[in-house]
Amino acid sequence: MRTERDFEPVSPGHLACPGCGATLAMSWVLSVLGYRSVVALPASCFSIISGAFPHFPLRVNLVHTAFETAAALATGLKAGLEMTGRPDVNVVAWAGDGGTFDIGLQALSGAAERNEDILYVCYDNEAYMNTGNQRSSATPRHAWTTTTPAGEAGEKKDILSIMAAHGIPYAATASIAYPEDLKEKVARAMALRGTKFIHILCPCPTGWRMPQDMTITAARLAVESCSFPLVEVEGGRKILVTHRPARKIPVGEYLKIQGRFGHLTDETLQTAQRAVDERWERLLAAAHEVRENRRTTGRKKKAR
Fold first, then answer.
1. Is the peptide bond preceding residue 54 cis, with omega within 30 degrees of 0?
2. Considering the domain boundaries, does residue 3 fall inside one?
3. Which of 14, 82, 163, 174 is the most core-located residue (most Cβ within 10 A)?
4. Number of domains comprising the chain
C-alpha cells in the first residue's frame, strides 16, 4: 500500500525538454497534494510531457481535456468525487499561460465566480511554447516570439489582480527558484475551501533562448529583480508580499541571460527598469504585510 512517505510525484522518463521548469513545478505541487489527487490537464506543453499511456510519468490520476476547459473539468471532477463519497481527493487544474490568460480565462472566471472548491495552477512560460513559441497575453513587453519578431509591444496581463478581483479565498504567485515558498502556498491553499489560484513562473530554456542549466537562475533573477514578485492575496483584498529582495538587482541582469531579449538597447533596458520599479512601488504601497526575504520566518507588518 502506498503512503505519503514513499510518494514520488514525477518519475524519470517524461518527455519534457531539458531544463523544463514546468516539471519541477508539477513535482513540488504534487509533493504537497499527495497521491490522492487528480489533475485536469488541458492542451499544453504538459500534454506532451505526460506522454501516452501506459508510459506515464505522474503518480496520480490525470484527465486530458480541451484547451479552454481546465477549470470546467476540474469543477466536474470535484462534484463527482463529492457525490461518490470521496471529498478528500484533491482536484487541481494544471494549465499553461495560454490556457489560463487567454483561451481558458472564461471557464476559470466562471469557476471563480461560483467559488468552486478547486486548486487552479497556471505554469507560466510566457508564450505558447508547445506550438512553437507564439506570444500570449502572458508574454512580457519587448520579448521576442515567432509572432512578435520585433518584440512584444504590450504589457504582460496582470492575471493575479484579475483573479483576486473575483474575491476568491486565495490567489498567489510562486517561483520554481523558491520551492519552500511554493510548497507553503500550495499547503495554505488546500487548507481553504473554494477556488484557489497559484501562478508559477516556469522558465523555458527552449523558448527563452538560454542554456538548459539556467532555468533556476532565470527564475531567481525574475524574483530578485522584482520582475515577478512573490505575493499572496487573501479574499481578494489582503495582500502579502512573501519575499522582499535584500538587494534588488537590475532588471538587465535578468533579461540579458535570455536570447529572446537579445535585441534590447540600453534605452529599452532603462524603459523596462522604470516599468518594473513602478509596479514594485505600487505593490508595496498596496501591501498589508511584507516579508523581508524568503528565509524570514516571521511576517513584518506594514504600517498603514
1. yes
2. no
3. 174
4. 1
